TrEMBL record:
This is DUF2975 domain-containing protein. It comes from Candidatus Enterococcus moelleringii. Keywords: Membrane, Transmembrane, Transmembrane helix. The chain crosses the membrane at residues 12-33, 77-95, 116-135, 141-161.
Amino acid sequence: MDLKKSRDTFWIIDGLFKLLAVGCFAWVIYLAVQLFGYQNPVITDANRIVVIGLLSEGGLTASQQDVTNTLMAMPQLLVWGIAFWLGSRIFYDLSENRTPFSKTIQKRIDWIAKSVLGLAIFYPVIYSLIATVVAGEINLYLTFDLSLIMGLVLSSIAAIFRYAISLQELADDTV
């Protein structure tokens, strides 16, 4: 497969993903300083499609939501930073003219898929626990966001790559 024509594009995407990864890690450090160094952390959680609060008498106050959202943003940004870094490694390998159907690339895609799925599944549980601790009363939140869909799609792509690798190995053995 000739990937030389796309080499520059892969190189640019590699650089963008590295910048995004570094930005995520820097944002985590900034949030940690804001949370642990100052009294009023401020961040909003805008990527949730629906949030349902159950077992909550009065809900969270604005300052409690700020603290909870800041605490939840840090692991979320870490997962996205790792995903962007692994994505940059995939595009770096492609820019170096390595085959896309290698076990290394398949494992990176699989790792990204599992981490995004884990984030989507455990986010509501952890958010509920933190909200309960911050508010001092039981809070249960159910959320649905696009991370779940993205994780499932990436998991499917990793399975397709796994199958393609086995076909490639079979073709190599035949030749």
